[in-house]
Amino acid sequence: MKSRICDKLRYREKPLLEIAEGVTVEVNNKAVALLEAAELADGDISKTAIDKMMSLLYSEEDAAKIAALDLTFEDFMTVISESIRAVIGQSGNDEKN
């Protein structure tokens, strides 16, 4: 007997995160990318690690949007953690359409 789970999978839906008025980014929800980004977030905070995290979580265009906001470090880490939370379905400010 085989079980069909196709309808339960959401791999085609990528979460959107509104960071600032008019600035929305799409978060990569691929499991391997998320696990690698989460590992980087818990480890060494270096420019190399941050660049890698950005490339794992966002497209080049969306990473540039975030960089253009010139966020404080605390706000930047909020964006990263909320991105991860959005992927795992724990974001507290979901907007329903």
- Rg to the nearest angstrom? 15 Å
For the residues shown, what is the average pLDDT?
85
Report on the biggest sheet.
2 strands, antiparallel
The quaternary structure here is: single chain
**Count of individual helical segments:** 4
Counting helices, strands and paired strands, the structural category is mainly alpha
Shape: globular
N-end to C-end Cα span = 38 Å
Number of strands: 2
What is the percent of helical residues?
A: 40-55%
**Low-confidence residue ranges:** none
Q: Strand-and-helix sequence, N→C?
A: EEHHHH
Strand order of the largest sheet: 1-2
- What fraction of the residues are assigned to beta strands by DSSP? 5-15%
Question: What does this protein look like?
Answer:
The protein has a two-stranded antiparallel ribbon. The model has no long low-confidence stretch (mean pLDDT 85). The protein is globular. With 97 residues, the chain is mainly alpha-helical. 48% of the residues lie in helices and 9% in strands. It has a domain at 23-87.
Secondary structure elements and pairings:
Layout: E1 16-20, E2 23-26, H1 31-42, H2 47-57, H3 60-68, H4 73-87
Antiparallel strand pairs: 1-2
Which tags fit this structure?
48% helix; globular
Describe this structure in a few short sentences.
The chain is built from 4 helices and 2 strands; from the N terminus they run ββαααα.
